[in-house]
Amino acid sequence: MSIRFTTKARRGMVALTAAAGLALGVAGCGGSGDDGKSPKNSASASKGDGSAPSAQEGPTDEVQVELKGPGGLMLQVNSAERDAGGFVTVNGTLKNESNKTLTLPAQLSGNETEVIRNGQSLGGATLIDSKGKKRYYVLRDTEGRPLTTTGISRVKSGETVPVFMQFPSPPNETTEVAFQLPMFASGDIMIAG
């Protein structure tokens, strides 16, 4: 075989491998499915410092439960939505009802080293399925960052901050769970979807 033939064959294999890799990448990112339903938005972890919540983190008008926390903090849970990907996203607002600026307690991040290492968050939140006897913790991405609102360290007097937390989904027949956040009262919420 000549060197020229070998070089052409090698180039062809590289091009074929690159094309196959791109095709697999595009197919893997599709995810629209053939179920005829429009895709639902799901919240994801904020990049950067997390101080500017995305539009997905915005609250709805309805309040499912209000949970009182330390020093005049209140968490209003507006929705808990189950998506087709097997996740439950809890949306709400964190309010400062005191007359002074409050620093969020470190306990809200939970006590897992990997989550604490990624800064202030609501990573200590859990969902409790009492019928299924299971506790669901906030999901983490591949780098250990919790899939929740991050970067909130202080809340001014009267300020309202939109927040979200994403959990693995309990079984579809489970529609009511207890929501817990360290240092806050516990409350029952309904899962839609």
Spatial ordering of strands, largest sheet: 1-2-3-8
Q: Structural class, please? A: alpha+beta
Poorly predicted segments? 30-60
Terminal CA distance reads 63 Å
Number of strand elements: 10
Largest sheet report: 4 strands, antiparallel
The count of domains is 2
Q: Helices and strands, in N-to-C order?
A: HEEEEHEEEEEE
Shape: globular
CATH class bucket of the largest domain: Mainly Beta
Task: Give the proportion of residues in helices.
Answer: 10-25%
Q: What is the CATH architecture annotation of the largest domain?
A: Sandwich
- The overall pLDDT average reads 78
Strand percentage lies at 25-35%
As for the CATH topology of the largest domain, it is Immunoglobulin-like
Number of helices: 2
For the CA atoms, what is the radius of gyration? 22 Å
Please outline the helices and strands.
Elements: H1 3-29, E1 65-68, E2 73-82, E3 87-96, E4 102-103, H2 113-116, E5 126-129, E6 134-137, E7 154-155, E8 160-168, E9 176-180, E10 187-190
Antiparallel strand pairs: 1-2, 2-3, 3-8, 4-7, 5-6, 5-9, 9-10
Molecular structure report:
- With 193 residues, this protein is of the alpha+beta class.
- It folds into 2 domains: 28 residues; 136 residues, Immunoglobulin-like.
- 16% of the residues lie in helices and 28% in strands.
- The chain contains 2 helices and 10 strands.
- The strands form 3 sheets. Strands 1-2-3-8 form a 4-stranded antiparallel beta sheet, with no helix packed on it.
- The protein is globular and about 45 Å long.
- The N and C termini lie far apart (63 Å).
- About 16% of the residues have low confidence.
- This is Secreted protein.
- Keywords: Signal.
- It comes from Streptomyces hirsutus.
- InterPro entries: TAT_signal (IPR006311).
